[in-house]
Structure formats: structure tokens, C-alpha cells
Amino acid sequence: MKARTVLIKNAKIVNEGHIFEGDILIEGEFIKEIDTSISAKTADVVVIDVEGNYVFPGVIDDQVHFREPGLTHKATIESESRAAVAGGITSFIEMPNTVPQTTTIEKLDEKFAIAAESSYANYSFMFGGTNTNLDEVLKVDSKNVAGLKLFLGSSTGDMLVDNTEVLEKIFRSTDLLISVHCEDEATIKKNLEAHIEKYGNDIPMECHPDIRSAEACYISSSKAIELAKKTGARLHIFHVSTAKETKLFSNKIPLKDKKITAEVCIHHLWFSDEDYKKKGTLIKWNPAVKTTKDRDALWKALLDGRIDVVATDHAPHTLEEKKNIYTEAPSGGPLVQHALVAMIEAYHQGKISLEKIAEKMCHNPAMLFQVEKRGYIKKGYYADLAIVDINNPWTVKKDNILYKCGWSPFENMLFKSRITHTFVNGSLVYKNFKFMNIKAGKRLTFKR
């Protein structure tokens, strides 16, 4: 259903810390009206009665790897944005470690061109920093690009920024939001060598959080924060995974005033080191899934405001690749289709409120990245909406997994809730496991 006049009736609207019953009128791409009761004034208005289901703002996922260009045997922007929309994610920010890497303006523009033709969801891309491309970084228009991504560990190609002078120069020179992957390479290398000496290359998966250790994360995160404070740079730390790191962040000031912010990912909130025995390399991520103590601390920091955003770090690989032994199995896994329902499962478990889910997955990413007219259910905003039936169980199976790689770490999981409808820019793109074959995604813009 392409963008037209649509009236959503009998909704429980989750927005800005409240849940209220009402109707939403969509006209074209935008929300025209929100009220307790709205009548269709003309016969051509499409009325959708959601029968008391919950309407969330479309989720904004601030960290995904959709693998295009160059790694399209794993995923494409088309395939993964489609899976994202089925999961209620209406906007994504994709990372620069594709092939070729997004470290020049030319390669950045090529990715925007691919997305303009193929994306079901709204899109932007991180520009990648290296030890040698500061001149290119300074050409990036901050109003039209999500930000700058720096790998301070776990890089691909030449994207490890390990020259401290260059790093400080980047922090001082750019007005872009700087997002970082923090793991100390020297610590990881030392740990890996010790484990290879003990086990050879076939290291037990349970050793992954010992190799990519909490200390490796903390060393790198604390250095990045120290540098941001020194230079005044705007810093966002991706996928915080340890209890120790949560102490680096503050909840003393509102998010809009923070210069240093943090993200946690679904897998670090869901899994722990106790799951390696059953899941093996399917839950091998960088940074590693760590202890239950770490997981509990991440939940605490998320709820008390030290951690600002929930994202996925969606990073698919083929099953064939993941089935390799430890030293050859790549890190990362697919998550966008199941992220929102996983968080609502946590709601059912009493861990988080629906209002807080909307805050951490919709409002805060919009505020943090200064995304224009998205992330909220407001008059005049784009009609990016996810409608959720929170009491309609379904099981994740091979035949309903939409990722190109064809697997999920949540396979055989029974979720209590499901996404029933997803609107992108006023167009109904997805309804009850069926797609309307409308690629309604638009390039995100930023109010900076």
C-alpha cells in the first residue's frame, strides 16, 4: 500500500514515556493527526483497525552490517532491509567495513545509490576512518551522513586506527559524531596466542570471552573516553559488553546534552557465556558475549540511563562460514528481524517497560544522531510505525527467517509477540508475514 491517506484506529500508542489509546491519521508520508478518536472524512481513506494492539515509532537501528558491496553472498541491502522491516525496524545506519571499504566520498556515494534503488527501510551510512584518510573525513557533510566510524579494535582491511597521533587529530578535526568499536588489540593478541599454545587452532568457544576479554574492552573504551574529554569530540561507544565499562558512563545530564554516549546490543542483553556450550560459534561476536554478571550490569545501566541506545550490530555470515573451528569462524550474526520482539520478550519477563523500549530503540537514536522527523509518533513527523500484537506467539523457524544467510541465533525460540504491520514513510510495507513489495526507504537527513 503506497503512501496515501490511512487511518489507524483503536491503537495503544507508545510514545515519549506514555501509552495512550487513540487513532493516527497518515496523509502521504507524514502523520497528519493524533487524537482519541478520528473519523474518516472521505470514502478514499483506508481504515486499519488494529484492535488495541500497540503502535511504536519505527525502530532506528544505529549499527548494522548489510554487507553490500563486496560481501553479498552473506547479505545485501535489499535482503537485510526487508528483514529489518519485518522486525519493526524502519531506519538503519550501516557500517563502512564492506568491500571496498567506505573510506572515500566516492565509495560512500556508491552505497547511497545502491540503497536508493533497493532499500525497504530508511538508510544512512557511517563513513570509515583510517590512519591515512583524514582529508576524506573532512569532506563529509554532517547534515547528510550519520557519522564517522572508527575501529579501535577488531577491524577489517586497513580500518584499524592505531596511530595515536592520527586518532587525536581526527577527534580534534571533525564535527561528525564519532562512533567507535573498542577492544584493545594488544591484549587480545596476547590472549589468543596463549590459547593457541594451549589448544591449537580448535579453541573451545567458551574461551571467546577470555580471549576478547573484559579488560581488552575496558582499556580501549576508557582511552577513547579520555581522548573525547580532552578534545571535546562527540563520542558514541558501540556495543558495550562489560560491567566494568558501564561505570565509564553517566546519567547525570539529559541525553541531548551528553557528549559521550553508549549503546548496548540485543545479544549482550540476551545471551551469556553459559550459552556457548549450546550455541557455539552462532553466538560468536566481537566484543564477546560475557558473563551473567556482565549481562545483569548492562541491563542495570540501560535502565538507569548510563547506556542510551539498544541496537543490533546485525552482521550476518553464512552457516558454512560459522561452522568453522574457532580461529576460522567469523564473528557476528543476524538480528534485525528479531530485535524488537526480543526486547518485548524482556518486557514479558518483567525486565523493561514498553515505554522504555521505545525510548531506547526509537527516541534516543533519533535524538543522539539528530535524525530529522523520525523516532517519535508526532504530528508532522514521517509515518514510520511498527504495530505489535504483544500476545500472539510464534516460533522462529527456517521457513520464516528472512536473512539471506538463512539462520538466526533465535531459531526455535518461541516469542510471545509479533510485528503485525510496518509503515515506512506512510506506506504499509509489511503485514502479517507478507510484504507489499514496496521499497519505501528514503535517505535519512540530520538536523545539525
From TrEMBL:
Listed EC numbers: 3.5.2.3
UniProt xrefs under Pfam families: Amidohydro_1
Keyword Metal-binding assigned: yes
Keyword line: Hydrolase, Metal-binding
CDD domains assigned: DHOase_IIb
Function, in words: Catalyzes the reversible cyclization of carbamoyl aspartate to dihydroorotate.
Database matches in PANTHER family: ALLANTOINASE
Identification of the protein by name: Dihydroorotase
Species per Swiss-Prot/TrEMBL record: Gelidibacter salicanalis
